[in-house]
Amino acid sequence: MSRDEVDRAIVGLVAAYDRISAAMFEMDAHPALVLLRGSSLRGRTAEVATEVLAAVEVLWSQFAALGAQLDRAKTVRAERSRPGDAELRVLTSVLRHPIVGLSASGLVVDSPAAGGPASWQTVPGLADDLETVAAEVVRALGEVEAASGRVAALYAQPTAALEKASADATNLGGDALKESDVDGLAASLANAQAEALRDPIGASGPPPELVSEIDALARRIAGLAALRTAYPERVRSLTTAVDEVAAAEAAAAKVYALALEKIANAGLPPAPDAVGGLRAHLAQLGQLHREGRWARLADELSIVERSVARAKERAAHLHEAADGLLQRRTELRGRLDAYRARAGRMGLVEHEELAARHRAAQDLLYTSPCDLPAATRAVVAYQRYLNQLTERGNP
């Protein structure tokens, strides 16, 4: 090599060394390298760790050799401003000849005890290899870091939801947290995330059942917080609804009393009487609210609301049943009067047998209490006999 060729080669190697040095510093300071040096990795991440750490060991070995050979070249070149043939031969050997012995794994063989090299490499070739492999390692570390970030993002939402639920429950006070295993869920979530970070490359999100438990807890705590805000209005609505039940039961009781007086063997179930229990339950809600027993309050409030709805429905149904008996009697009276009018138009009012049947039906319908089944049969008998007379044309 000429002096100019030597100088250009050294300048190129210095520039390459600086680039490699920067890449090695980035690699050594990379947070993913700490993860890959952990002892509990598994799966694809463990495979990447084996590959990357082996490559890092080779890089440092070759980087040290590159630095040593570059220092040697610079030292020889600095001995004389115009190197002679001896210096140029040494520099040519350093800068062009394959003088760096490498093992089969790529480590620099610099000791006879390590055995003979599997291959030899030139210093410029070593620099090229270092740049290529260092870039590949940095890229692999970036992928591991991105995978770890993905795992963190997957766990961020359930973690935030659990923290918010815990904070909301603490703010609520009372029994909001007593029946909620927040600490247990937090420990399970942390363990699942730690397990995922053992193989971030192959990891999926948090276990669905754990996410479901956290979501259920968050919804329940949010519901309790909403209950605290909405409680006064809900109680006012319930109180109004209970008053409506009282009015409906009172109306049903009146119709009941009349039906039992006017109709024999009415067969009605007991009259509705749920208001007392509902009012007592309302008072219990107030006590639970004052004590901050939110979980119990939520359950009891739902029970009272359902009970009120059922009581209103039952009162209306029983009112309808009792009134239906009275309406049936009125309907039968109307039918009997209509048939009597028809008999009059046909000149059959004085017909002895027909008149007897009319009296029998009328007596049943206008006697208290009225035997509705018997009255129904009597009205039907009157109707049928009237039809027979009409069909025969028998006056």
Helices, strands, pairings?
Layout: H1 3-28, H2 31-36, H3 43-78, H4 85-96, E1 100-102, E2 119-121, H5 123-172, H6 182-196, H7 208-262, H8 275-291, H9 294-345, H10 352-365, H11 372-392
Antiparallel strand pairs: 1-2
Helix pairs in contact: 1-3, 1-4, 1-5, 3-4, 3-5, 5-6, 5-7, 6-7, 7-8, 7-9, 8-9, 9-10, 9-11, 10-11
Q: What distance separates the N and C termini? A: 151 Å
Structural class: mainly alpha
Main pleated-sheet profile: 2 strands, antiparallel
- What is the CA-based Rg, rounded? 49 Å
Overall geometry comes to rod-shaped
Structure description:
- The chain has 395 residues and is mainly alpha-helical.
- It folds into four domains: 3-149; 150-225, no CATH class; 228-324; 327-392.
- The chain is built from eleven helices and two strands; from the N terminus they run ααααββααααααα.
- The protein has helices at residues 3-28, 31-36, 43-78, 85-96, 123-172, 182-196, 208-262, 275-291, 294-345, 352-365, 372-392; strands spanning 100-102, 119-121.
- It has a two-stranded antiparallel sheet with strand order 1-2.
- Helix 10 runs antiparallel to helix 11 (372-392).
- The longest helix is centred in the middle third of the chain and has 55 residues, at 208-262.
Concise overview:
The protein has four domains: 3-149; 150-225, no CATH class; 228-324; 327-392.
Task: Describe this protein with a few key phrases.
two-stranded antiparallel sheet; rod-shaped; 395 residues; 77% helix
